[in-house]
Amino acid sequence: MIDIRVIREAPDAVRAALARRGPGFADRVEAAERLDQRRRALLGEAEQLKARRNVESGEVARRKKAGETADVQRDELKALSDRIKTLDAETAEVDRGLEEILFQLPNLPLPDVPTGDASANTVVRTWGTPTEFAFLPRPHWELGEALGLLDLPTGAKIAGSGFPLFTGAGARLVRSLANFMLDLHTREHGYLEIQPPFLVNADSARGTGQLPDHEQNMYVTADGYYLIPTAEVPVTNIHRDDLLAGDRLPIGYAAYTPCFRREAGAHGKDTRGLIRVHQFDKVELVRFTRPDDSPAEHERLLGHAEEVLRRLGLAYRVVLLATGDIGFASAKTYDLEVWAPGVGAWLEVSSASTFTDFQARRANIRYRPAPGAKPAYVHTLNASGLAFPRTIIAILETGQQADGSVLLPEALRPYVGVERLIPGGR
Questions:
Q1: In sequence order, which residues have a C-beta less than 8 Å from that of residue 33 and are 6 or more positions away?
Q2: In this structure, are residues 219 and 267 in contact, taking their beta carbons and an 8 Å threshold?
Q3: pLDDT tens by residue, 64-103
Q4: Measured between alpha carbons, how far is 422 from 426 in angstroms, rounded to an integer?
Q5: Mean pLDDT of the chain
Q6: Is the domain of 316 the same as that of 261?
Q7: Residues tagged active-site
Q8: Count of the separate structural domains present in the chain
Q9: Looking at the domain assignment, is residue 426 inside a domain?
Q10: How far is it between the farthest Cα atoms of the chain?
Q11: Among 77-91, 152-166, 329-343, 364-378, where is mean pLDDT lowest?
């Protein structure tokens, strides 16, 4: 949530920043300004009346002690109290309206984020060289079926399209990726492993910005719980309404969970294989930091996600997203895109984002910079470290051999227990 003081002190700058995201935000900023002005006027009047009420109360007490009549003052007190109640009720209504508008405004993009839609995204760097084949590389859905790793028709029968079924060595590959990534992030990168709930309440979804912006892409139960679209939601909310000691920061959590996304509006797009699915596994990285350390923490977080791809030997590129392509809550996002030779495309496997204090304001996550100091909002960051489906796509399509087998990355072999996947292997 944007700090109302920023809108109050620099409304034109806020409008200009949001205009970089796209049209339609200026009216909301102006509505927030009007409500903020009305709120301050109401509070000012209420404070004046409360001061007058204190004076009249003192006068009533004095007259009563002196044995004098105080009927006029009592009438004045009642009128003042009635007006103050009216003002308080109106202020509460204005507060609700202002909060609703602020919850609908996305985060302000940082100055170094390129302006434009996805065509303005910028490749920051690349790593590795895409594998060249002496044969025509096959797509992962053919490899998965031939090797007995993936049964998409049965997954569709059980739940519907977009709900994959991994079998045999495929299921073991999923489990191995989870163990490999968690071991790397906890043992070498210093994250604390978390196993959070897979359902969250509306307060948690609102705190990270999924509500109201992404509600159409979330699965919701009959009693109002949301299936998590990412572990970012429950893990960030670990510290909702907390006041953290400054010496605890930075804090880093790593969580392996399933993720559920309806992907409304994406029907018919990238529906083959594992490119776009409704349920998938992911290791998520979440960090809480002091504002001054936030830029460096963002780069560190990105590096932790990159290290997974380097250990797996997969060619990738780092892309800085433009203002029209970053998420609602993000102030700046890097995507990690891995090369998948079978489908001939760069596929996103991680988004590393900084949210500045946007999520912390919504979720009321603060820290005390020093003993006795005034509390301030933390900065939150997260990244996929990594999402499994497209990582599996790259592993299968990059490691495929002419004989139909798939050579696994060396880092994964101790976890899977074999060097290569072969037809009929278990």
A1: 7, 8, 11
A2: no
A3: 787 777 767 778 888 888 999 999 999 999 999 999 999 9
A4: 9
A5: 94
A6: yes
A7: 261, 276, 348, 351, 390
A8: 2
A9: no
A10: 108
A11: 77-91
